[in-house]
Amino acid sequence: MTDLEKSLFTKIDKIPIIDPHSHIDPHKPAARSLWDILSYPYYTSLSHSSGMDPDRIKYTVPDDARARAILQYMPGFASTAQFRWFADMLTDFFDLPADISADWNVDAIIDHCESRLQSADWSAHIKNVSNIKAVFTSHPLKDDLDGIDLNFYIPSLRVDDLVLSFESKEVRARLIETTDIQVTNANSLRLALHKVFDRLTRYNLAACTTSLPPDLSLSFASETKIDGLVAKATRGDFFTPEERNQMATFTLFELAQRCQEHQVPMHILFGVIRDVYDHGVINGTDLFDQRCSLVELHKLFNAFPNVKFPVSVISHAQNHELIAYAWIYHNVYAQGHWWYSNLPAFIFDDLCARMHSLPANKMIGYFSDAHSLEFVLPKFRMYKKELAKILAREYVTGLNWSEERAIELAYDILYNNVVELYGLRFEG
Amino acid sequence: MTDLEKSLFTKIDKIPIIDPHSHIDPHKPAARSLWDILSYPYYTSLSHSSGMDPDRIKYTVPDDARARAILQYMPGFASTAQFRWFADMLTDFFDLPADISADWNVDAIIDHCESRLQSADWSAHIKNVSNIKAVFTSHPLKDDLDGIDLNFYIPSLRVDDLVLSFESKEVRARLIETTDIQVTNANSLRLALHKVFDRLTRYNLAACTTSLPPDLSLSFASETKIDGLVAKATRGDFFTPEERNQMATFTLFELAQRCQEHQVPMHILFGVIRDVYDHGVINGTDLFDQRCSLVELHKLFNAFPNVKFPVSVISHAQNHELIAYAWIYHNVYAQGHWWYSNLPAFIFDDLCARMHSLPANKMIGYFSDAHSLEFVLPKFRMYKKELAKILAREYVTGLNWSEERAIELAYDILYNNVVELYGLRFEG
Amino acid sequence: MTDLEKSLFTKIDKIPIIDPHSHIDPHKPAARSLWDILSYPYYTSLSHSSGMDPDRIKYTVPDDARARAILQYMPGFASTAQFRWFADMLTDFFDLPADISADWNVDAIIDHCESRLQSADWSAHIKNVSNIKAVFTSHPLKDDLDGIDLNFYIPSLRVDDLVLSFESKEVRARLIETTDIQVTNANSLRLALHKVFDRLTRYNLAACTTSLPPDLSLSFASETKIDGLVAKATRGDFFTPEERNQMATFTLFELAQRCQEHQVPMHILFGVIRDVYDHGVINGTDLFDQRCSLVELHKLFNAFPNVKFPVSVISHAQNHELIAYAWIYHNVYAQGHWWYSNLPAFIFDDLCARMHSLPANKMIGYFSDAHSLEFVLPKFRMYKKELAKILAREYVTGLNWSEERAIELAYDILYNNVVELYGLRFEG
To answer: What is the CA radius of gyration of chain B?
Structure first.
């Protein structure tokens, strides 16, 4: 990084983090063991990919042995961005030296870290070092949200299962249990979805979130047809592909209707194909098909002009479509850099193209997708470095912007736009 | 930009502009009001996207109020390349300070610019400052071309409607009116297309231009079948998708036949999907589907080996295909950076890959797609800056080329190749 | 290049070359005339593309006249990476000045080079200057491998024809001739494939290699159905598309089974469409369709968890998929930069993204695809320059790695991983 890039990064790094999508458990936000960190699918899948026997991390193995297995394989992917997140944690949270990766000592890391993780104020330590203002948390139907700090943890309703897996007995049972509504036809399903929304709005629901597969075809069916599909699923019969699309479309549009009523944005994570790899470790079996397009979603975006749709894409090749959609549609936003496209090389290219073409308020910079608080800072910093480079090269140097003006734009992309889009209100 | 990049840019900037595709009206080439400039769909769509109520620019609103609405929303997209074009106009044509975007005063801009635009020599002023040698203009059937300066305005025949919308009563009526031929079957359609071409060749027709949708499937039908389709359309019946493809294929190939006879290149703009967004402003409703391929067009390129096909693609992901096609096919050329891929980030990547792989004479550098003369200079300069960077980094620094040699290559890409491909002859 | 980039390149350039995919003929590894070099399809297709009459290189024309034709058109693509390979040969092997392209004298080049090529030790000269440790060679069924230096030439079995063209009488005849097995049903085909493998393992077979088209759909058929397809092909009848897929799937999976038994990796070159361009020069008619996905191959990767699959893709847009697959699948590797994606601009982007995300041992850096030894060095150097840039920017500067550590990573990517993946053992 040049001096200018470093100067901009330092200033951007001071922007408090609001993280608009994570899987952090508000009841256990930080890690309590190295395994809590190293079980992140990025590490289990990379260790497996580089040669680790997956039996070394199966459920019957004690957590400390599982952590040791991952640590042993980490030098094999020390050149990756994913490794960097952990190396940064070791430096920033555990006070280990910055060049730890050059002299990797598994025993020393374990000894040093496991005891630190037991400290009573670990979670506060992470929050403090990371300068996190708020994180969104993801909740399917039944999570207990009582007693959590709603000024810090901002709930989003995660609806993948409802949209995509109505055939699953478990999913239907959970819906009924949560809502106390017997779902027997289109209308009772609609009422149940109402109730799910109503319940969460008591906790300041900020988003309704769903991932969608690349082959989803939005297909509209009559109320009678949906009645029949609910009955069919209840009987335990499987849908045809067309019926599956009809059911998903019905639920997705009902949820979008609720989003409209409650003025809640619908965050779409687009393009993943689940369970492709038969021999993968847990959460290391999903991939994507680069032949995917947002074009099918125009029916959704057009049908709900008053719902805001932040969209994240899994495939780098789709970034250009996302740009065109967020440029033209008043209600589509480009949000963050998801999963397989969450690498510095792609972030730089994708973000630079977004900044060259999108109104500032249509960009929601970044989200962590973290499973525990430790990941928020290193992932945001990875993004902030690429942002600093772009601001330095394209704006301060390229267009003679002042550094102050560049930082204002960074502040919009990372902070103000999240507050505005999701209607956040902080107390105190 | 480094000193070398600046030096190369300064030299490239001196190359007179020949703009091989625009929508400039030769009878009213320059703007006469700010609204003439700000009604460019890039600005109306970005203003709408960033929050402007579209009613503020509807037809019943006076032009000055519409211009004001756009100007008020422009700071919201001041980080975009599209904004830069306007900011550069303010500096280069209106003599406002270069840092105007940092201190945006709508009233001051309106006061200053509207009066300047009334000056009698405004159009000559733009031409002079821009150093434009010639611009291509786009003409569907009926435009009046008498009395225009054919040494400056170079007509191309725009045939989207003929190829894609034969079902439209208006399109057929315009064809009949222009040609005085009653189109009742394949043969009379063929004769009408002959006459359209013949008419324009009197004005030194340089190109036949059509945009094509990504899902066009070239499908050949018998003369009898086409007779039936002409009759069907005349009765007011709609085609099946297959019939639509058959009709489009017939017309496209007939036009390619005329291109061959008249030695006129066929310029193809590939990949747009029209009218996707229901709530968009005018000309702000078209998008693309990144799942598109030039592979369908091999039937066209193979069938007419003596017709030259400059091709422009809307999707950044398709640039690699365009490269492979222009590399292998002797009659396919990579032309410019169209619409959604006309951003500095994409231009740099796409052009660099073209220069790494294509013969110099297969690259047609840039076209403006401008609606009025004011856009030609800032858009060409955006391109020329990226070209200068690539020449500096990859050729002068990377391969020890002299600056002179690099500028010769730029001259070929921007000027000589356009003259050669389109067979231009300038008088005087 | 910066000083750091140059320093790293110089060190990387010292790594002996192991080239894991080429078309070099071990019985005639180096060129004996300029035409042997200039007949490389990259040069014939670019010359044709830039305007050369293809008749100038047809078979009846003497080789020296054909070489002259190409040389005359080369200045037209002097800005390409493909030209650079030849310019580097002129400097590195023929001792012509480095700025030869600035003062291109066809007669002088011919006079100088043709005589040099007649020197008795030409091939040893190339090997020596190039520092090649070993090159893989590609063998369909019948090649004679006796007497070649198996410590330098490492055979791979090329199976495109067997997998994709069983309908071809010639292919079947060659299979029968090689194996002495009458192929009349699924089982005798299986036995013949066994024998093909067994024969080559005597020569230290290192890989089984096949290119696959983007539209291959893996489709499983019963033994009885395959019996019928073998009979159908033998009768001279053509397959339906579905039958073609079934036959290809059967053969591909049988070969993968042999790979598993013999612990031989299967190298897949994915995405080419053959014979698209009707008027192209030889080997200048193949293209690709960017709408292609590795997703179909998950059936293969899942079915053979003990077979290693290095995969190369033809389309830049597919690099992201390749990354995701090599990241998740323990048995998929990202190998090199194939054909249309083998350009510096794409190599930099594709390799940078791989290094940001893949375990070091999942990257097989580069292969030459060369037809004669002269191409190995300039193509590897093109790659090594991009690798040096990435190591300098992202690792030494970006992460404070020592140069030594960066070079170790380069050594793994270019050398150790090839040895390990393909199980190479060098004698002496």
So the answer is: 22
Q: Is the pTM of this model over 0.90?
A: yes
| d(C-alpha A404, C-alpha A402), whole Å | 5
Distance CA C391, CA C400 (A): 11
- CA-closest candidate to residue C70, choices C30, C113, C122: C113
Task: Give the up-direction half-sphere exposure of residue B348: CA atoms within 13 A in the CB hemisphere.
Answer: 17
Cβ neighbour number for residue C120 with a 10 Å cutoff: 7
Distances (CA, A) of A181 to A107, A175, A185, A189: 53, 8, 11, 8
- Tell me the ipTM for this assembly: 0.96
Q: What are B315's two structure tokens?
A: 């999707």
Place B336 in a pLDDT band, splitting at 50, 70 and 90: very high
Domains of chain A: 33-117 (1.10.2020.10), 124-422 (3.20.20.140)
Instruction: Categorize the per-residue pLDDT at A305 as very low, low, confident or very high, splitting at 50, 70 and 90.
Output: very high
Residues 6+ apart with CB under 8 A from C314: C269, C270, C271, C272, C288, C338, C339, C340, C341
Decide if A256 contacts A162 (C-beta within 8 A).
no
C295 contacts A287 by C-beta, under 8 angstroms? yes
> Among A91, A266, A251, which Cα is nearest to A162's?
A251
Cβ contact B278–A302 (<8 Å):
yes
Q: Which residues does C contribute to its contact with A (CB < 8 Å)? A: 291-293, 295, 298, 301-302, 305, 317-318, 320-321, 323-330, 349, 352-353, 355-362, 394-395, 397-402, 405, 409
Those residues of chain A whose CB sits closer than 8 Å to some CB in chain B are 291-293, 295, 298, 301-302, 305, 317-318, 320-321, 323-330, 349, 352-353, 355-362, 394-395, 397-402, 405, 409
CB-CB contact of A338 with A368 (8 Å): no
**Residue of chain C nearest B363, judged by CA positions:** C50
**Distance, CA of C428 to CA of C423 (rounded, Å):** 16
Residue A142 has pLDDT above 80, yes or no: no
- What is the Cα–Cα distance from A227 to A232, expressed in whole angstroms? 9
- pLDDT band for position C1 (50/70/90)? confident
Q: How far apart are CA B213 and CA B222, in angstroms?
A: 23
User: CA-CA distance, C96 to B89, in Å (whole number)?
Assistant: 50
Distance CA A29, CA A48 (A): 26
Question: Over the stretch C78-116, which tens digit does the pLDDT of each residue have?
Answer: 999 999 999 999 999 999 998 888 889 999 999 999 999
Distance CA C94, CA C100 (A): 11
Closest-CA residue of B relative to C273 is: B295
Nearest CA in chain A to B84: A399
pLDDT digits 0-9 by tens, A227-274? 999 999 999 999 999 999 999 999 999 999 999 999 999 999 999 999
Q: Which chain C residues are closer than 8 Å to A342 by Cβ?
A: none
Q: B122: helix, coil or strand?
A: helix
Helix (H, G, I), strand (E, B) or coil at C133: strand
Quick one: which of A193, A183, A194 has its CA closest to A230? A183
DSSP state string for B260-280: HHHT--EEEEE-EE-S--TTP
C-alpha distances (whole Å) from A351 to each of A7, A364, A376, A390, A391 are 20, 11, 19, 8, 11
